Amino acid sequence: MKKIILGLLVFGLTIPSFAQDLEQLAEVWIIATNYKYLSETDAEDEALPIELLQRKVATFDLKSSEIYNDEYDHYQVAFHIPEGKILAAYNKEGKVLRTVERFKDVKLPDMVRKSIGKRFPGWTVTKDVYLVNYHDKKGVTKKMYKLRLENGDKLIKVKTDDSGNFL
Q1: Residue 119 pLDDT exceeds 80
Q2: Exposed, middle or buried, 147 (CB in 10 Å: 0-12/13-18/19+)?
Q3: Most CB atoms within 10 A, among 5, 35, 57, 59?
Q4: Whole-prediction pTM value?
Q5: CA 88 to chain centre
Q6: How far apart are alpha carbons 137 and 39 in whole angstroms?
């Protein structure tokens, strides 16, 4: 009786090991082609909708889109959200070459708010436009805020960079 129980136990433990079929999966490669664009345009204090749209631009898969054709070297793709838009130029490999970005009424960075409060005390920002121009070949990213300030019936327009320096 002990031999039968021991035999069934060994038999029961060995059957499942033969039933498992191990399949080797293909390797997956993740290539960050637009890491430079993200690192150049990324800011610590940037509004969330801007950051999400910039990530969408960086992760856009050009080759699987319906506009892709082997004959063309450059592509221009527009991305829109209610707060703004980005026009991005890609090469045929899907790398971001340059962008023109415009966002309205976004949260201003702390540096910009502090510099406005210091230079224009008592004034309030009633309208703002955030502009970003990225160019891969030149290695230049320009960020600028166009602001409309009001104090009672007085109105002025100023421009600052993302560090709060007036232009």
Answers
A1: yes
A2: buried
A3: 57
A4: 0.73
A5: 12
A6: 15
